[in-house]
Amino acid sequence: MASLGRQFILLLWKNFVLQKRKVCVSVFEILLPLFFATLLVLIRLAGGRTSITHSTTYPDVSLQPPHDRHKRLVFTPDTFLTKNLCQSLINSINREYTVTGFSTEDDLLAEYQRDENVTIAVVFHGNYYDGPQLPQSIEYSLRIDSYNAWNTAETYGLYQQPGPSPGSDQYTRDGFLFIQYILDKTIIEQFNGSVKFNKDFDMRLKRMPFPPYSEDRLVSILQSILPLFIVLSFLLNALQISKNIAFEKEKMLKVRVYW
Hints:
- The protein is an alpha/beta fold.
- The protein folds into 2 domains: 2-48 and 221-250, no CATH class; 61-205, 3-Layer(aba) Sandwich (D-Maltodextrin-Binding Protein, domain 2).
- The chain contains 8 helices and 8 strands, in the order H-H-E-E-E-H-E-H-E-E-H-H-E-E-H-H.
- It has helices at 2-20, 23-46, 80-93, 105-114, 170-173, 176-191, 218-233, 235-250, and strands at residues 50-52, 61-62, 72-76, 98-101, 120-125, 139-144, 204-205, 213-215.
- The chain has a 4-stranded mixed sheet with strand order 4-3-5-6, sandwiched between helices. It has a two-stranded antiparallel sheet with strand order 1-8. It has a two-stranded antiparallel sheet with strand order 2-7.
- Helix 2 (23-46) packs antiparallel against helix 7 (218-233) and helix 3 (80-93) crosses helix 6 (176-191).
- The termini are close together.
């Protein structure tokens, strides 16, 4: 242990001698981290928090049908029951759509990726649609054409800020919820022919209100500039270390320290 202690002291003495020969560089290596740390503290102290004492509420919105850019619906499996459901769905939308059935989901996905005119894709899960009537339990998946990626794998956005999130209206804007509502209504009517929904019935949505919170816009600013400040703080140190290593390699100098 004594030998290790002497080697460690020798290494510190060597680095101290090298730093003493470069006074200006050593001073800047110390002052730069202190400067950027002080700057972060001043930025933090410059801005205050705003307390929002009331709850944030949102207006209600109506369900919107898919856009009219393309008008083609594909579904699977291709049976009489599923085709009847999809055709009733199109009739409820009151638009001219081309309805095409596929035997497997793989064929449907291949067509969905190949043809840009596909607006709606419906996948009925299970092998219960070959009989004379619909099964008691129906599971399906919807795929709606959209301009932007939905990023459904992410629970939260990349940058989080205090307070309510901006939210996303893609489920409403691209017609997903509208198609889901119409398809569920069609399935209910198929199960019970005596059930007829009022055509004037208007389904509307409204975001949950957000409770009072403290707003601090500097948090997002600090999140973006903190990595930059860390890099700038130790940039000179990294350059000097790289320079010293290259100099020792070039001059074939070695300092052997055994740990």
